[in-house]
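dude i think i finally got it to work??
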Amino acid sequence: MPRLILLNGPPACGKSTLARMYVEDHPLTLDLDIDVVRNLIGRWRDHAPEAGLLARSIALAGARAHLASGHDVVVPQLLAQPAFIDQAAALASELKCRFYEIALLDSKENSVRRFIERAAASRQSSFRETAKSLGQQGRLADLDEMYDRLMALLVARPATSLIRVRDGAVRQAYHDLLGVLA
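look at this
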């Protein structure tokens, strides 16, 4: 039975890294990164809210096709509102797939620090661009706010599986992810 695995969590907590590890260990699994999909939409920065919704709709359509083919889908994405999570859960239910809602967590301070460090060292332009934009606009506090919104969402979703992440402990986090999926 295919699985739809949602990896939620603050920026720079390892969602994409764990998704890639899972895909490498599970042939034909789709790593469906919504940020990558959004970057394929023309001039998305000029229409960010609409582009974000479009990217999520496209991601759900892609997940539908891939799950229907009998293969797993991993979606690494910060989600601080329940709408997409509920849509993903409904899709999995409709297709009679297993749905896993998982959040990777560390302290707010560690999450913000890790995001800033990763943005400075990252080759991934979206990471650098987001950090630069937040810094230039004096909005680094937005990272705190994103973290707080995520925590509020998780309180309202007690069935979410939580995985504690620590710097340098990627293998342990991946082991914990596999434990949740067992």
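The chain has a mean pLDDT of 90.
im so relieved honestly
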